[in-house]
Description:
Number of domains: 2
Number of helices: 15
CATH topology of the largest domain: Rossmann fold
CATH architecture of the largest domain: 3-Layer(aba) Sandwich
CATH class of the largest domain: Alpha Beta
Mean pLDDT: 89
Distance between the termini: 59 Å
CATH superfamily of the largest domain: P-loop containing nucleotide triphosphate hydrolases
Shape: elongated
Helix content: 40-55%
Amino acid sequence: xxxxxxxxxxxxxxxxxxxxxxxxxxxxxxxxxxxxxxxxxxxxxxxxxxxxxxxxxxxxxxxxxxxxxxxxxxxxxxxxxxxxxxxxxxxxxxxxxxxxxxxxxxxxxxxxxxxxxxxxxxxxxxxxxxxxxxxxxxxxxxxxxxxxxxxxxxxxxxxxxxxxxxxxxxxxxxxxxxxxxxxxxxxxxxxxxxxxxxxxxxxxxxxxxxxxxxxxxxxxxxxxxxxxxxxxxxxxxxxxxxxxxxxxxxxxxxxxxxxxxxxxxxxxxxxxxxxxxxxxxxxxxxxxxxxxxxxxxxxxxxxxxxxxxxxxxxx
Length: 315
């Protein structure tokens, strides 16, 4: 139910009337962070277009969701061709057809070109909704043929209220790491997040103390946890630099080993480079690249090994 996401109301309300009357754009592009309810918004807009109540949404046959095949991590041209065939079929409810592409940036180049042909000559009474975190990863030709819906995140207060209603725990520190993405945090769960962050904190301290090798840590990371772990380490480095450069108060959420390095002579440029490397790896992970992650993570963690020797400034 869209009412479960009150922060989306200002986004969908201005669109509701025209979509219900089929006076809308042929294609919408929902742009925003993951974990804030983008897919729920897309399904709600689809329900309006197809004249369905949310309670009966599960019975909709005129809606097709195109997502990456788990093995390939990408959306293929065959999937887009199949979508086109579906859009050309007669609507079962007589209201039209809807295609949802999620995430849109997962489309291969041929798939994007195939979609462009659909957008150039859209079948009658059809609507396509694309969902993306980054418009920069989509061809400009697709952007120009879509009405962009900027989907902003909820406020900190809204996120905490929403999460506490589902699991009455302290979510403040989680939001500082992951941002206001309550749907994502709720899906992962507070208990798992806490245990994962505690384990990672211990590993980073072991690195800095020279008791744990980078390769040992990379071997222990599950593939599904790589993006999460990289995000946490990035937030710690950001907070570390914030304390040092802006003279902010010490943060108890920092790993013990990292907190001990606050009074050391650390090369700040090297710290920023480490953060850039983390972002690069996150981008690669998100794109579904089949890399030797153990090697890349080991290389990434090397500067933290033995009292952050790779980051110390000996000049």
